[in-house]
Amino acid sequence: MMRKLLPFVAILLTAAGPQGPVLRVTVPDGDGWLADRDRVSADAVNSNCLACHSAGMITAQPRLTRMQWGETLTKMRTVYAAPIAPEDDAAILDYLAASPS
User: For the whole model, what pTM was predicted?
Assistant: First the structure.
């Protein structure tokens, strides 16, 4: 995924004006809520992740380890300034690392 974003980021940085790059984000249309997965609640993911990602995008992601999802969560916060509630980290990671139902 990151390799696909690199050309886009390069274009943004190249096209940046004197104030720096302008990042425009299009929030996806809602396609519903995520259901609980392998008896793990989807509440934290629905509350935090669906602000920027569609449910379909989340469920289409490849299987990652809990550690890999943790790195992704950190990236969402630090690179994209996602307003993810830190107290929800464990619940989000539990959900993303759980087997799909």
Answer: 0.68
